[in-house]
Design goal:
Elements lengths: L11 H8 L8 H21 L6 H12 L4 E4 L6 H11 L4 E5 L7 H4 E6 L4 E6 L6 E5 L6 H4 L3 H6 L1 E4 L2 E4 L5 E6 L12 H4 L4 E3 L6 H6 L3 H8 L8 H11 L6 H16 L9 H17 L7 H12 L12 H11 L4
Parallel strand pairs: 1-8, 1-9, 2-5, 5-8
Antiparallel strand pairs: 3-4, 6-7
Length: 338
């Protein structure tokens, strides 16, 4: 049950009055925002044709990208993680690469390496697969901590430092990391610093019986081989990110968001509460969800829909009796909207 049904939040009509204030775009810019959000919805629908019965997760993945964040998918193999990443790259017209993490990988396998050229008597940097727009870091927790850490600077600062030189990454830059359950052999737990770089996490889970039955139909098998036509491109996406960041939030909703953060920090069974980076991710993802719904203002449901995906991978239980998602849902249920 959402808290908005139990409280008296600001009405959408009052929020719409704020939209027409001086701080919000109008006229041609508003039309541009509406057109962009419509095309984004078309991209979401296109990806949904590749990945049946997973519309909520696909919507969250697009919101994460709009919020200029990175996405962690926690699931067992074979449930569509790679399909989601590839379909998003195709629908959005983004360059994409995939790294399969293994225990013998080195940071240079990700970042690149400087090679000495005898002809010029100089070292030349050869860029690694991280130099792309959408990077699928597959089975990230099968890499050693040293290799995992190669992503930290790139995810936080959109740049790579190698041999004393700094190389900017392409824009937009979006990492989709996948993580196998920790009970599987050959995995290394992701440290908190790595987990906190991911704006939100989702789990695809098994498809419904009806959706899985569609997988066996010849027309679907043929469609899976065909790449999606791009609905947008990288330039369009950068513009959409800027528009999503301008979605209006009333002070009441900002207070509600901060109440959720404070509840995680004061919770007796949580080791470490949500960081300011997590709070910013929550705010940006909520804005992106509103933008995908073609709204220029936040409503309580935007914050509520974003909270569990943003918090679940960041929270750990002192007693070991609760998972991060259970803790996040408990906080959401027990924190009222003023």
């Amino acid at each position: 049950m959402t808290h908005s049904s139990q409280q008296n939040p600001p009405s959408p009509d009052s929020m719409r009055q704020d939209i027409h204030g001086p701080s919000v775009q109008s006229g041609a810019n508003t039309e541009s925002a509406s057109e962009t959000s419509t095309r984004l919805k078309q991209a979401v629908e296109a990806v949904s044709k590749k990945l049946f019965d997973k519309q909520p997760q696909i919507r969250l993945a697009f919101a994460c990208l709009l919020a200029e964040g990175h996405l962690l998918i926690e699931d067992r193999p074979g449930l569509g993680k790679t399909t989601l990443a590839l379909a998003m790259a195709q629908a959005l017209g983004l360059d994409h690469k995939r790294i399969q993490f293994t225990s013998d990988m080195l940071p240079s396998d990700i970042l690149g390496v400087s090679i000495y050229h005898r002809e010029t008597e100089q070292f030349v940097f050869h860029k690694g697969p991280i130099f792309t727009q959408l990077l699928l870091a597959d089975e990230l927790n099968r890499g050693t901590p040293r290799t995992q850490s190669a992503l930290l600077e790139a995810m936080a600062e959109r740049q790579v430092s190698v041999d004393g030189s700094t190389w900017p990454l392409q824009k937009p830059f979006f990492v989709i990391g996948t993580q196998n359950p920790l009970d599987e052999s050959g995995t290394f737990p992701l440290p908190d610093s790595q987990l906190d770089r991911f704006s939100l996490s989702i789990s695809l889970g098994y498809p419904s019986r009806a959706a899985e039955k569609r997988l066996y139909q010849p027309e679907h098998l043929q469609a899976m081989k065909q790449p999606l036509e791009p609905v947008l491109n990288g330039t369009d996406l950068l513009a959409a990110q800027q528009l999503a960041a301008k979605v209006h939030a009333e002070e009441t909703l900002v207070d509600y968001l901060q109440d959720l953060l404070l509840a995680s920090r004061e919770h007796s069974d949580i080791i470490t509460g949500l960081s300011p980076r997590a709070g910013l991710a929550l705010f940006r993802v909520a804005q992106a969800l509103a933008f995908l719904d073609q709204r220029h203002y936040l409503v309580p449901e935007d914050v509520q829909d974003a909270f569990v995906p943003v918090a679940r991978h960041r929270l750990a239980s002192r007693s070991g009796q609760h998972k991060g998602e259970q803790l996040a849902r408990g906080i959401l249920h027990n924190t009222p909207l003023r």
